Amino acid sequence: MSMGRAAVTRGVLLRLREQIDFTERAKELLEMKRDNLATETNKLMAKVAARREFEQKLMEAYETLRIAYMTLGYSELQSQGSAIGPLEVRTRLRSVVGVPVPEVVLGKKPSNSSITDPSAYSASNGLVQLVEQLLDLAEAEARIESIAQELMMTNRKVNALERVIIPKMRETLRYIEGRLEEETLEEFFRAKRVKAVIRGETR
Amino acid sequence: MRHGADIYLVTRVHGLRTHIIPARDIKILAKAKSLRDVFDNLMKTDYATDLGQLPAQDNDAATLERIFHKKLVDRFFFLSRTAQGKMQDLLIKYSARFEVENIKRIVRAKHGGVTSERPDLIPLPREHSLVNFPALLSAKDIDEVASLLRDTPYRVLLDKVESYKQSESTMILEAALDSVYFSNVWELAGKVPDGEGVRDLIGEEIDLRNLLIAFSLKAREIPQRVIEETIIPLFYAFPKATLHSLLQARLEDMPSILTRRYSRLASEAANLLKNESTLPFEWPFFRQLYSHASEAMSAYPLQAGYVLAYLLLCECETKNLVTIVTGKQLDLSDEEISKGLYEV
After folding, report:
1. Confidence category of residue B255, pLDDT binned at 50, 70, 90
2. C-alpha closest to that of B151 among B169, B167, B166, B132
3. How confident is the model over A53-78, as a mean pLDDT?
């Protein structure tokens, strides 16, 4: 809203007041969204914090896998692994405070019940047990990424409204109010003068 | 040993025995700096011919493993061709372990729905098998695999398909294949002249496999009924009743149920399960088998048992070489690799 070009009328003043009221409510809503997104991020951060522990478990599982490879060789372990049923995972979008975030739904956990060799079973078991945790972690990280992006955008919008747009609108409002007041005074003065002139002529 | 052909076979095996890589050389290989060093050292052994045909860039562990298996298969079938009479029958049936292993690999792949790549089979020359592997590989599911095996010794798979579908596990099919294999071998072992050593080695292998199944499946808390179905229905040094008692006992009580022959091994296995050691669980079982084979070479130097002991030591050598090359490729430490070796 350019202050210099604003038409100084009562209609514009009324519309501007309405706009300021609307913008302030929008800012409050955005602030609420920002707070909710921040709360959601904090919740997810707790999940992501478990990543180090998860990575430790993953390294242990890989170590067992390496030992199994060494014991059985590539072809045998690959064959034992081929008996593991496939992992079924679906991803869908969910809305968290209006932000589309991915949701991972585990359909079917891979079944390693067909594995007969103890080394191969131990290696597969270590990894199969981590699948659910891995998906949880992946989901949390993807959500944080989306939410953090949205949080940044919302914060910018709130800042822009709070520090630039609303102050400018208020300034315009003050300008128009001032100009209208001036015009009212001028009108009053002019009317008074006219009245005086008319009175002098009659005298 | 009564027949000339059998005496010739044992004499031939005495010569072949000297081609097995000695334990000290295996240890040196385990301490080699790299896979390339292992490759170079193997060029001084029986593997040189096959290794020499490899392009320089192809000496990765998986390729070397294929060569080791090919050599093992060659060693088995060389003896089955050299032998005559009952001994030949036994060696042909004994060598069917590769065929069984390949069928198991196909069954696993079909169960897991692996379609993108074919399972890596042990290289088995066409003339040594009645099984049509290309057809099995192209089969769309386990039903088709079982029906393709209708005219082979593995027709029993047809009867097991229903149980497989109910349990959704290939364990029952693999157990059926093992049962067929060991029943055939066990039956022929009784017909071989001077076959005491043969029966001893095959019997020990059956017992050890049963113990391995009992321990590992019990540790996985698999129901007793399923374990019993998975066990090879043959017993050598311990009776069937002992196995029942084993399956009903707690894991820590299992060693006390077994006789001295297996009680130490059972204690070791129970400790491995308890301590969650990095040592593979099957390791003590195979170590006992190969140690027994090594002892059998001294116990039956002029009998058929010597031939089987030699074949088991060949298998042991292959396992050791696979462990070394895979360990080197995965950058495992010399200590870790040495721990996984079978010293016989």
Report:
1. confident
2. B132
3. 93
Scan for tokens 């359909």, then name that residue. Answer: A107
d(C-alpha A29, C-alpha A36), whole Å: 11
- Put simply, whether A71 touches B (Cβ < 8 Å) is yes
How far CA B190 is from CA of A164, B82, B89, B200, B206, in Å, comes to 98, 20, 12, 11, 15
Q: Please list the alpha-helical segments (H only) found in B129-280.
A: 133-138, 142-148, 157-167, 171-189, 196-219, 224-230, 240-248, 254-257, 260-275
Q: Looking at the partner chain, which of A66, A73, A82 has a beta carbon nearest the beta carbon of B332? A: A66
**B325, two tokens:** 């090359």
Is B120 touching A (CB cutoff 8 A)? yes
**B265, B291 contact by CB (below 8 A):** no
| Single pTM value for the model | 0.84
Q: Characterize B163-194 residue by residue with b for buried, 16 or more Cβ atoms within 10 angstroms of its Cβ, and e for exposed.
A: ebeebebbbbbbbbbbbbbbbbbbebbeebeb
**Residues linked to residue A108 through DSSP beta bridges, in sequence order:** A88
Question: How far is residue B175's CA from residue B167's CA, in Å, rounded to a whole number?
Answer: 13
Is residue B70 within 8 angstroms of chain A, CB to CB?
Answer: no
Q: Do A83 and B281 touch (CB under 8 A)?
A: no
Say what the ipTM of the complex is: 0.90
- How confident is the model at residue B251, as a pLDDT? 81
Would you state the structure tokens that stand for residue A98, as one six-digit string?
């209006």
Residues in chain B with CB shorter than 8 Å from the CB of A85 are 111-113
Q: Under an 8 A CB cutoff, do B280 and A71 touch?
A: yes
Residues 6+ apart with CB under 8 A from B245: B257
Question: Cβ of A117 and B66 within 8 Å?
Answer: no
Please state, in angstroms and rounded to a whole number, the distance separating the CA atoms of residues B59 and B55: 8
Residues facing residue B42 across a β-bridge:
none
pLDDT at B276 over 70: no
| Cα→Cα distances B166→A110, A133, A149, A175, B106, Å | 17, 29, 49, 84, 20
Q: DSSP strand E in chain B: where? A: none
The residue ranking higher by pLDDT, A31 or A85, is: A31
Pick from B182, B308, B171: which is nearest to B235 by CA? Answer: B182
B178-229 pLDDT, tens digit per residue, is 999 999 999 999 998 888 999 999 999 999 999 999 999 988 888 888 899 8
- B34-51 pLDDT per residue, tens: 999 999 999 999 999 999
User: Which residues does residue A93 pair with via DSSP β-bridges, in sequence order?
Assistant: A102
With a pLDDT cut of 90, the percent of chain B lying above it is 68
User: Band of the pLDDT at A96, cuts 50, 70, 90?
Assistant: confident
CA distances from B193 to A97, B10, B87, B182 (A): 83, 13, 8, 19
pLDDT for residue B127 is more than 60: yes
